[in-house]
Amino acid sequence: MNFTTLPKIELHCHLDGSLRPETIIDIAKKEGISLPSFDIEEIQREITAPLECESLDEYLKKFAIPNLVMQSKESLRRITLELFEDAALENVKYMEVRFAPLLHTARGLDVEEIIESVLDGLKAAEDQFDIKGNLILSCMRTMSTDSAFEVVENGKKFLGKGVVAIDLCASEEEGFCGKFVEPIRLAKEYGYRVTIHAGETGIGRNVLEAVELLGAERIGHGVFIKDCAEAYKIVKEKQVVLEMCPTSNVQTKAVTHFSEHPIYHFHKDGIKVTVNTDNRTVSNTNMANECNIVFNEFNISFEDYKQIYDNSVEACFADVETKEKLKKYI
Question: Which of 30, 70, 164, 284 has the most C-beta neighbours closer than 10 Å?
Answer without folding.
Answer: 70
